[in-house]
Model the fold of this input.
Amino acid sequence: AQSVTQLDSQVPVFEEAPVELRCNYSSSVSVYLFWYVQYPNQGLQLLLKYLSGSTLVKGINGFEAEFNKSQTSFHLRKPSVHISDTAEYFCAVSEPGGSYIPTFGRGTSLIVHP
Amino acid sequence: DAGITQSPRYKITETGRQVTLMCHQTWSHSYMFWYRQDLGHGLRLIYYSAAADITDKGEVPDGYVVSRSKTENFPLTLESATRSQTSVYFCASGRDPPYNEQFFGPGTRLTVL
Done:
């Protein structure tokens, strides 16, 4: 069965600093990986996804993530954050050809300070 | 309007009452989902549907009922609301494999007194 661990529940950072939000997954087969963002009082929206191909995936708002199969990780990075990046970030995994139902991590709260 | 909508956005009810949360999507996605979001628990799947007239339980289905007579609608009913069902409820629709990504509604904040 697949599972997702987001190692940090909260990440505080200053504006214009780089940030990395960590995500590790557990699965016995190949996977699809996703990062979603949830701004206050809103639903989740897709930041980026990895289905196959290049392990470096670029998403919206300057975010990128790298799929590392040997370390079963899919960490999210941004070289310079803005106040507006303050939000909850969720990593999710699903299995191609499996049940389709994605498994979500518990989320990481990114707090950007001025 | 295109997209996925939920109604109502806010609801206050009393213990024991029946409540129905509505979800409507305009993309004709096959899959639809209901989640609840609670502090410390992240997102938990209540029910999902792979197509009209096909539904299945998720992680926390007890106390909830769903139906899907039309592809675009996926209502969630709390038959007899309890205080533990106070939560924010999100509906989502999903693109077919291999894309698998989900599109979320804005949420319904439900308070059970």
About this structure: The CA atoms of residues 31 and 97 of chain B lie 10 Å apart. DSSP finds no helices and eleven strands in chain B. The mean pLDDT of chain B is 93. Chain B touches chain A at residues 31, 33, 40-43, 45, 48, 50, 58, 90, 92, 94, 97-107 (CB under 8 Å).
